[in-house]
Amino acid sequence: MVPLWWYIVLGVVLFVIGAAGVLLRRNILVVLMSLELLLNSVNVNFIAFGRYHADFRGQIFAIFVIAITAAEVAVALGILVALVRNKSTLKVDDVTVMKG
């Protein structure tokens, strides 16, 4: 059986990679994928701790996070399509000014 700390290390590594992608990259699609990586690292830890304590709450929280993530991606891609139609760019620095 794989020890719990391996899953924690995997979750931390995924979280650091995702956080670095959010903070350092300038492409909106890469930032969105990095956010997904952040949320999946949290899911790994939820499931690992749920398995360690022999409780299903970790899996339930992970499924809830996956559902919220799917809704977030749908909204973000809709905004992204509208943004590309108006600005013709995917760089974060070029779209920081939002007009109502």
UniProtKB/TrEMBL annotation:
Name of the protein: NADH-quinone oxidoreductase subunit K
EC number, as in UniProt: 7.1.1.-
Organism annotation: Rhizobium hidalgonense
Subunit field text: NDH-1 is composed of 14 different subunits. Subunits NuoA, H, J, K, L, M, N constitute the membrane sector of the complex.
Gene Ontology MF terms in the entry: NADH dehydrogenase (quinone) (non-electrogenic) activity; quinone binding
UniProt KW Repeat keyword: no
Primary location recorded for the protein, binned into one broad class: membrane
A single BP term in Gene Ontology: ATP synthesis coupled electron transport
Subcellular location: Cell membrane; Membrane
The family this protein is said to belong to: Belongs to the complex I subunit 4L family.
Highest taxon listed in the record's lineage: Bacteria
Bilayer topology: Multi-pass membrane protein
Protein task: NDH-1 shuttles electrons from NADH, via FMN and iron-sulfur (Fe-S) centers, to quinones in the respiratory chain. The immediate electron acceptor for the enzyme in this species is believed to be ubiquinone. Couples the redox reaction to proton translocation (for every two electrons transferred, four hydrogen ions are translocated across the cytoplasmic membrane), and thus conserves the redox energy in a proton gradient.
HAMAP family in alphabetical order: NDH1_NuoK
CC terms in the record's Gene Ontology section: NADH dehydrogenase complex; plasma membrane
Pfam families linked to this entry: Oxidored_q2
Reactions performed catalytically: a quinone + NADH + 5 H(+)(in) = a quinol + NAD(+) + 4 H(+)(out)
TM spans (from-to): 6-24, 29-48, 60-84
Cited Gene3D superfamilies: 1.10.287.3510
Keyword field: Cell membrane, Membrane, NAD, Oxidoreductase, Quinone, Translocase, Transmembrane, Transmembrane helix, Transport, Ubiquinone
